[in-house]
Structures are given as structure tokens and as C-alpha cells.
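task queued by scheduler; priority normal; single chain, no ligands, no partner chains; default sampling; output format set to C-alpha cells
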Amino acid sequence: MRALAANIEEVFREAAARWTLVAYFALSSLFILLFAVAVNLDVVNGALAGAKIFGQSVHMGRQSVDLDTLVLGFESGFAGFLYVVGTFLAIFATAHLVPRLMEKGTVDLYLSRPVGRVPILLSRYAGGMLLSASNVATLLGAMWLLVVWKTHLVHPRFLLAAGLILFGIAALMAFAFLVGTLTSSTAVSIMATFAVFFLSIVLANLHAHTAIFSSAWAVWLVDGLYWAFPKMVEIGRAVVGLVSGENGPIRNRTALSLAPFLSTGLFGLVSLGLACLRFSRKDF
């Protein structure tokens, strides 16, 4: 446990020394500040009488809008936005962890310790997840407090979305670790991980419209790739569906089913397992 704690501490030290930590939380603070100054709500007797978003007035009609329903709509939209932002920031902030570890001199220092290679890699992964979790918690926590301050409405489901966001980040980070052990390149790790993210979006759309294919083998190929890759679209919908609850679209609520999370979790476990196997057998 002491070695694990020391390796996790070194992840944060590296992030601070390379200005990654500062840039990470500076960008998060910028998003929070933009939200704070961009959204102005005029609440009268528990109902929304007027609203401005980025300086543009939202037409409310002749009657006020139910505040609780509108705030849930805002929060679900913010949760979906923070899912994308949090995921992108997490990959940028942690993609260097394996390539940095495998640099000459750094890896020699780590391997000289009485700790196995797999525990070293897993401790780096745990450190990266803690770094990502701290940022996601900052983003969602600050947004939630701002919403409570502006509307005096409390919806704890908004905070629970952090768990789903971190689940998606965990799967992508595991893949980034695998690419890092294969290439020792931060840039390739970032590009490959983002390629998986965007490819999962394409596959989700193709999987939903397999009727457009004229051949059975094309359908099998799309279905096979769809289930092999992480379900980033479904996780994003699940985040929105969790926050919006019964007020949101049915497709977002159905995304909370178990299958997308099982296949995404399996993708992450296989990626992390292969990364550990590669790192344990690599000749330094």
C-alpha cells in the first residue's frame, strides 16, 4: 500500500511539474466561470419568469415556466456537455503517464524498486483515475452549486452523473495505456484514444441503421465492431438520462441498461490487461 500511495503521489507531482495539473484545472475553472456569467434566471414565486443564456433572452411566452422542469433540462444538458469535456480533458491530462514511465532513466528508477511491473503500471492507472476524478468532481460540484445558488433547487442526480462519466473515462484511459505500452508515444496515445471515441459514435449510428446495408456480411461487421468498441454514445445518453429522469427522452433512459456498460467495461479490462502483459514482458 505504501508503494501504491507513493506511485500515485508521483503521478500528481509529474502533473504539477509539467504544468498539466495547472492547465487541467485552469480549463475547468474557465468552463465554470463561463457558465456562471452566461446563465441568468429570473425566478418569481418558484417559477421562471425570464432567462438569458450568453446574453440572449429566452422567450418564455405569456406564462412563466415550471422552474423544476426547466432546471432538470438545463442540468441534463450540462451533464452531457461535461461528459464530453471531462473525457477529453482526462485523456489529454493522463495520456503521458505510460510514455513518461517508459522513458530511459525513469523506467530504470521504477524497476529498481522492490515492486513488480504490473503493480507499477496499475498504480499509474489509479493515479490517472484519481486525477480525472478530482477534475470531474470539481466540474460537476461547481456547476451543481451554481445551479442551487441561482434556482434554490437541489437535484442530487446531477452529482451521481460523475460515476458514469468516470466509467467512460476509465475504459478510454485503459486503451490509452495499451497504446502507450506499444508505442511509447504520448501523441499516438491521444490520437488513438480519440479515434476510438469518435469511431464508437460512427458505429453507434451505423448499428442503429443496419437496414441501409445490402449484404449480410456488412451487417455482421458493423455489429461485431459495435460490440467490440466502448459504447461512448450510450454512456453519454445514460448520463443525460440519469439527470433528467422521467422528464427526458425515452432513448436516454433506455441507455441506462446493463449491456452497454458490460461491453464497455470488458473493453477496458481487456485493454488494461493487455497493457499489463506488454509492460511486464517489454525489454528495457
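post-processing summary
- The two ends are 26 Å apart (CA to CA).
- The first strand starts at residue 39 and ends at 44.
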